[in-house]
Amino acid sequence: MPNVRFLLTGDTSLSAEFGSEISERINAQIRAFTIALENSKVPGIVELVPTYRSCMIHYDPGVIRYGELTKKLEDVLGRLDSIAIPPSDVLEVPVLYGGEEMGPDLAYVAEHAGLSEQEVVALHTSTEYLIYMLGFTPGFTYLGGMSDKLETPRLKQPRVKIPAGSVGIAGKQTGVYPIDSPGGWQLIGRTPVKMYDPGRETPILPRAGQYIKFRAIDRAEYDDIAAAAEAGEYVCRTYPRGEAKK
Amino acid sequence: MSITVLQPGLLTSVQDGGRVGYQQFGVSVSGVMDPRAMKLANLLVGNDENEAVLECTMMGPQLRFNTANTIAVTGGDLGATLDNQPVERYAAFVVQAGQTLRFTSLRSGCRAYIAFAGGLDIPEVMGSRSTYMKAKIGGLEGRKLQKEDTLRFRAPNAAPANLAQRRVPPEVSPRREFTVRVILGPQDDLFTDAGIRTFLSETYAVTNEFDRMGCRLDGAVIEHKNGGDIISDGIAFGAIQVPTAGKPIIMLADRQTTGGYTKIANVISVDFGVICQLKGGDTVRFVQTSVEEAQDALLAERAALKALRDTLDPAPKSEPEPGPGPKSEPRKEKGFFRNLFRK
């Protein structure tokens, strides 16, 4: 059973803290706990927010008070080792790499790494990136696992507007811009998939604890997927992690 | 079935009880800054307590009614008038078609709330009508009100039952010094004992860096053990962040869902309204309370709101209630309500 501290975050939520570092082990514990808690149907729990180090639990003190809730949480933690947690899903995200419009900084990233553009794309698409958490803006993923070779400093002069779907690198981080926003990431490509669409039944595709794997596509496939996504007909491929990719 | 926005005011937006359930996806909760003011306004006009209202900031709007409806104005006193006659705050009143509601001057607090009987005809986005301006969703096209906007009513009601009873003692007085109750945590152990003492004994001044996302305070530096940076975790409404510079920031309705600064304490739910009615130049002190006391206060507030609703809009009775006389109980609750809200 992991060593967990319950931290007070006001009178309608608490934070179950699993550690104070960024590690896949801690994140896996948080994911298991979150799934177990969702399945346990403890009354009064309103919302769960998993992060790097903790799971924030919002609850209704009209249904369950703080003291009673922490006892229930201890019960769930005690059972955690005996609960079968399904493997994480991998969310496959198609990306058109490079080009002045979609990935204007691919050449710079390649030069900085001492690699060819093709090698950068091969490296970037070879990893399953763990989604540690979402935050900052709707659908923004904090990903872990990028190759050290691709580490590139941010732009000295941030761009005023980066289109939604842009895939970038900033220092040790990589990720996708879910909405149009200003920013200083090195842009290496763009996905036609809408990671965030407030009108869709599932407004945000990625979930904390899942993995993202990027797949390189060409312009023709980009246009096809973009048209399908616009019509609300494109579904990103997901598969259980560790399952042989077809 | 509508109102026309003649002047939008400084920052007027559609807000409700908030967008619950999407924080794990990075979506801010939003919603009103002063939940109790919203709930009272709604109950006074016969709405569900979390129905969408207009939140008006410091300088309120001018609204022309094209359809008669019952409304109530609560929260800070922004000098509301109807066709140039002052209107009673914290009381329901009927506005006739052709009349104009104006806000003339800021007298107390910072934010006023207008509830409309039957609610506003605004589509829900992710289960809420709240405007979340950063992501451009909710409310009217995801933005604050503009001149010549039209807001439609869903089910206006210009003839409410027992109108004369639809009033409660006004809240938000023109004070400038406030005390707010807090629960220490989640990172109080990352501050020195001296830092905690400073936080709980000094007076902090509200700066003008105060928006729907947060309220930045100025005052004595709160000492950390090892700086104010942490690996990001979740942020609750009312969380008091203290970055390395040692000056607190209270996180409010449009806060980001996660953040990487130490949080020394959290304002308790029943005091959110105190914080959100502050403005630049006001001062605030923090006093420590326990989670048990904070939850007692929250449940007492809910009971008082329920008692008010039961008094104004009694549920139709299907059969006689057993036990003690049903007439004496609401009266007792009403007295309790007055004590709770008259601070």
Instruction: Evaluate the radius of gyration of chain B.
Output: 21 Å
Class inferred from helices and paired strands of chain B: alpha+beta
Query: How much beta of chain B, percentage-wise?
Result: 25-35%
What kind of sheet is the major sheet of chain A? 8 strands, mixed
Individual helix count of chain B: 5
Task: Supply the number of structural domains of chain A.
Answer: 2
Which assembly state applies to the chains in this document? heterodimer
Order of helices and strands of chain A: EEHEEHEHHEEEEEEEEHE
Unreliable segments of 5+ consecutive residues of chain A: none
Q: Tell me, what's the shape of chain B?
A: globular
Compact summary:
The complex is a heterodimer of chains A (246) and B (343). Chain A is built from five helices and 14 strands. Chain A is of the alpha+beta class and 246 residues long.
Task: Give the helix/strand layout.
The complex is a heterodimer of chains A (246) and B (343).
Chain A: E1 5-8, E2 13-17, H1 24-40, E3 45-50, E4 54-59, H2 66-79, E5 89-97, H3 106-113, H4 117-124, E6 129-134, E7 141-144, E8 159-162, E9 166-170, E10 173-176, E11 181-183, E12 186-190, E13 211-216, H5 219-230, E14 238-240
Parallel strand pairs in A: 5-13
Antiparallel strand pairs in A: 1-2, 2-4, 3-4, 5-12, 5-14, 6-7, 6-13, 8-11, 9-10, 9-12
Chain B: E1 2-7, E2 12-15, H1 35-44, E3 53-57, E4 62-65, E5 69-77, E6 80-82, E7 85-86, E8 92-95, E9 100-103, E10 108-116, E11 150-152, E12 177-184, H2 193-201, E13 203-210, E14 214-218, E15 229-234, E16 239-241, E17 249-251, E18 258-261, E19 263-267, H3 272-276, E20 283-288, H4 291-312, H5 328-341
Helix pairs in contact in B: 1-4, 4-5
